[in-house]
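INFO batch 0412 | record 1 of 1 | parsing
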Amino acid sequence: MVAIVVAEKPSAARNMASALGGSMGSYKGTAYEVTNLRGHLYGFVQPHAMVDASLADSYQQWDLGNLPWNPQDLSWKREPQKNVADVIKNLRTALSRGDEIVIATDLDPSGEGDLLFWEAIDELGFHRKQFSRMEFTDESKTSIQKAFEQRRPVKSMQDESDYRKAMFRSQWDFLSMQFTRIATAMGRQCGQDLVLRQGRLKSAMVSLVGDQQKAYAGYVKRPFFQSRFRDENNVTYTNPEEPRFDQQSQVPHQYAASPVVLDGKADKKTAPPKLLDLAALSSMLVGKGVKANLTLSTYQKMYEDQVVSYPRTEDKTITPEQFKDLTPLIDRIAAVVGVDTALLTHRQPRSTHVKPKGAHGANRPGPKVPSSLDEVEHKYGKAGRLIYEMLAKNYLAMVAEDYLYEQQKGYVEKYPDFTGIANVPKAPGWRAVFDPDAGDDAAEGDENESSKGLGLAAVPFVFEGANKRPEHPTMTWLMKQLERRDVGTGATRTSTYSEVTSEKAKYPLLSEKGRKLTLAQAGEMSWRLLSGTRIGDLGLTEKVYADMRDIAAGTTTAEDRLAVVADWVREDIVTMTKNAASMRADLGLKEAQVVTHAKGVWQSAPGGPKKVAFKKTWSGHEFSDAEVARLLAGEKISFSATDTKGRTYTATGALGIGDYKGRKFVGFRLEVPDKPTKWSGRTFTTTETSALLAGQTLVIDDFVSARHGVAFGCKVSWDAKTKKIVPDFGSGDEPPRTWCQVVLTDTQRKDLAAGKTIEGKGFVSAKGKSFDARISWKEEDGKKKIVPLFG
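INFO prediction complete | emitting tokens
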């Protein structure tokens, strides 16, 4: 009997092979083989590929009339991700050799590790095998060995609570694509052709930044004046009951200088800051000019080389085994980042940072310690240097002593209601190793910190204050808000943030300039549309997580909890419709015509009758019910249409298959003549038509432009594939046949091509004014063109 151990990724497979004695063999009498996934090998196909063929067009079209989707219509079909064919092939081969399949993926709180295992088993068809589960707190040798020995028998995929809840979340997020379609449709109704992507995390980011940006921009300073005391050490004494005044002149001068009474002293301490997750690390690096996407890509390379730990961890602490593994490397890590090892005296695990739970552990240095930061920078660039230095110092702070200070409390002797506090540093501890607020002007410091402590005497003064201005949105601010509301993991926040702020994105939601964060155009529209919606509710993730817990506990099913999404879609259509009206009024946008679709069975569709939907308007004409019926029957129709210049013409055609940017669609197709008949106001002769059909290029000088109604000349040919005339107005060293409404003779064009300057008369400018000029054929701005010379 052979047990096939399936790890989540190659690095985990290496750790398991190391712990068990090799990639295959026998461990305590059990034959085994280690193989691995590479994250999610499969993902859901597009909605229209999940439903019956009769519903495909409805699920593909972005019309609001096709929403909400019915989850029962969806097959939840998957397809392989990109670049995983070799991984799938190796996995299939390994699984076929085993009698028992061991689930050795991560034990994520979200159940993601179970989901990516079972979706691979499901797609590869290995459900009839015997299954077991390895449950480990980390990937240390001891944990892996213990988990292999004590692996838990598993009946089936649906019996696993982690799989059920993770599958539900995955399906919920898939259904949330409907909210993108709603927002995009509303934007288009406002004349803005943008894709407004929505989702639990994206919409939360937009809502938070938009609200904060509004609060920041709408800030009105309201100053106040109040009596306070200050001693010779610059410690301030305040009375919370002291009245505030709008004007400085209103403050009564009723106090006099007084001695200060020391009321008490107490020794205080603070523990090191918590270990960084990817979001916190990336936020700090943004302030040093490193974009989130560069942090992600660089960290991944460093992880693959074992210089840093696994990036996409959800853990905020490390396990005792992980602490034990890194402890022998502390002095070497300190030497790399320039930390005095004399500061690193707390070599025992802290209960605040080290706990017997988790999987990968918080982000930290890896087992491969570089020789220097210069080596790191040479291999991974400046971003790599900053990542390692910050990550290492943050970790080393954990093995430094607490920050110690003496807190002194006192009051003004004559006016005891005025009290003051001074925190006097005694030992820097971890702050000498890693201070996350050091050098950050935007960070709030300890206003009570004083190197001298309380003074001996205080004098009154008029303090000028004001209501605090809301903080301008930044990545650091946003990540703290998301963490406070438990929306996404650190790694997911960072990757999503990178996506919505990417300068390469066609429709970015957020714009990042330095540390400041603002709404991009698509983000501005999304924020206005999200007000009062379900998808924009910051409590949505909490609701989804509560549903996940219930599904895992077996008190409800995914089908029941997914059914509510349809009602939310209907509600958000109504809410966003109202918000879109307000947005048009606020931004001065005009309501665009709503594109409607005709639906029915196209009898002459390629491959047989097919249910289709197509645009009900074409070139300014709306098809009548009778015309729709004829088109669906495969008949040809004619009607009066209007071109882009407002001219009417008779359009004749039938339903056909079109192509837009690689996407096939059904729509009215204009009948195109099989041979050239006329172009730009000129009808071709029989001889010219024959020549064009034979592939010849003709030079004709009496075409008439549609815009100005003036004559022009050019070369023309016939494209038999597209059935269109292709004009050639001259290229390279060949001058055009006409310029400013004058047809140039062959002799004039030859002289121009030879570099000569020729006389010209009767030219007409774009504004309709006649002029004479000498002209030449010259290169300007990297392009050859006619250049006029006057005088």
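INFO post-check: Residues 597-670 form one domain.
INFO record closed
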